[in-house]
Amino acid sequence: MAKQRRPAGSGLRILLYAFLVLIAVLQLFPLVWVGCYSLLKSGDLFGSEFLKLPLHPLWHNYVRAWVDGKVPLYFCNSLIVVSVSTVASTALSFCLAYALTRMQWRFKALGLVAVTLGMVVPIHTTLLPNFIWFGYFHLIDTRLGLIIPYVAFTLSFNTLIYMGQFRTLPKSIEEAALMDGASWPRILWSIVAPLAMPATMTVGVMTFLNNWNEFIMANTYLATDDLRTLPFSIIRFQGQYSSDYAVQFACMVLVALPALLLYFVFSKRIMEGATAGAIKG
Amino acid sequence: MRGPFQNRSVVATLVLPGIAVMVFAMLVPLGFSLYYSFTDWAGFGDVHPVGWENYKAIFTQDPVFWRALWNTLLLMLATVFIQNPVAFALAALLAHVSARFSRILRTIYFIPAVLSLVIVAKLWVSILNPTYGILNKLLALVGLKSLAVSWLSNPHTALAAVIFIIVWQGFGWALLFYYAGLMTVPREIEEAARVDGANWFQTYLLVVIPYLLPVISAVVVIDVISSMKQMELIFLSTGGGPGHLTQFVSVYLYQKAFVAGEYGYGNALSVILVVLSVGLTLIIQRVMRSAPDES
Q1: ipTM rounded to 2 decimals
Q2: From the candidates B13, B28, B98, B108, which should be mutated to test the interface with A, based on the most A CB atoms within 10 A?
Q3: Cross-chain Cβ contact B183/A278 below 8 Å
Q4: FRET partner for A77 with CA separation of 20 to 30 A, picked from A118, B39, B78, B265?
């Protein structure tokens, strides 16, 4: 596990702690600022004070953000699209990574190139052509039309994470199971998948967060309000309520909360798992 | 006879679904982009082939394109030479505090990376707002009111502000990689350096950094790729303005196709962006791979 360095002398040590805490405070301050003013009157934002504490919190701002930002509808839409794409991307990358690390096949090198290139291609270069191409299949302005690219653009990263995990697992277990006559689906599901659980957690959480936060594809492909995802709650306020800052800030907090909660619960997995591939490889 | 790990139908079942999704959502669209980049299609009406006209216009008559490329280069330099050293230094400091405390701090430092880009953009648009933004209030508080400007619409500050937002948002990733890397440095080699009389600076410069070169090069590759991929933060904060000063290729192609109605031209920009991203990645990976071998 973590190999912490020898601590410095006590005076330096206090300075070090103070400095690191200061950075953390600076990092958190914008969020605290938004949090405070989300509970005040919009006009308070124009006061000269640096930060005003909401001593008499106006929870009504949150009610308005919830209703006018269509948070429940967009939240459910996000949940559907993101859950399906996360499960699909996790399953597909698991299979792809297994074939790329364990199996021997002719086009393996090509497969690796495809996975690597998938990391490089910017999403934004597919926005224009997909409008036409997805149109042929009537996928524009549908949930499936969002799910497919969400899977495609998370697949490469996830495959690399899984490949890192598979390399740490001994092949002998699978070989023994094959000798005993176990079928491939059984080996993958009952032997490999449980052992790869740490990678699955990382892949699952990262994919969920990534797609949960995704905006530009949703903005491009979706026209129907009833299908829109959670980031649109914030966008909604830009036009008609553009002077209602407190409600906008409340909306930002509401939209940030689910992702932050998920992050705090799984932070260990995200922070250790996401870097594992790059450090070992 | 083929062994079980060479079973073709198993390989096909494992590989084809994933590859199919990538082909459907990435490769075929790029083919479409290529086709439309040789047309003058406006997004509706007839499609006329125009040969290399779009590409010619982009490279010879479009200052905005060059401005966008220049901005991308500046962003890359800012991430590699500002974000990177800062992240490395902080990661090194975090390695000197208790494991528990360092975990709490890392969790906080990484928050911007898990927020939606819509929130990050809106957050900084608010902070930098000239009338109610906190930055100008802070300047007024310390008596520097004369420095207060409209950060995102002032031609002198807009680009720096946008690059700062992107660097702020992406900083957590670099920190995470460096911290994970620092944890793998064997303590013995550091202590050996100390025994030989090296101070902390020499230890890092001569022992730790060379040891971590693979990690550093991995982070630099990620930096360059992600600089090419930036779009949302710019799109949602300045929209490339004022007067295309903060324009980036990914934003520009979007506006050309969906706002200006020059779909063919936008697709030509798309194709150029893909070629640049892939080409640059290949070059950097080659350079990075050969560099540590020589030393």
Answers
A1: 0.89
A2: B108
A3: no
A4: A118
Which amino acid would we find at residue B207? V
In chain A, residues under CATH classification 1.10.3720.10 are 69-280
Averaged pLDDT for residues A41-62:
83
Q: Cα B146 to the chain's mean position, in Å?
A: 33
Chain B interface includes A278 (CB < 8 A): yes
Long-range contacts at B266-270 (CB < 8 A, ≥ 24 apart): B266/A128, B267/A128, B267/A129, B267/B32, B267/B33, B267/B34, B267/B36, B267/B37, B267/B54, B268/B37, B268/B38, B268/B54, B268/B55, B268/B58, B269/B58, B269/B65, B270/A124, B270/A125, B270/A126, B270/A128, B270/A129, B270/B33, B270/B37
Q: Does B187 lie at the interface with A, CB-CB under 8 angstroms?
A: yes
pLDDT tens for residues A237-270?
876 666 788 888 999 999 999 999 999 999 888 8
CB of B105 within 8 Å of any CB in chain A? yes
Residue A181 · residue B48 · CB < 8 Å: no
Report all structural domains of chain B as residue ranges with CATH numbers, in order of start.
Answer: 63-294 (1.10.3720.10)
Question: What class does CATH assign to A69-280?
Answer: mainly alpha
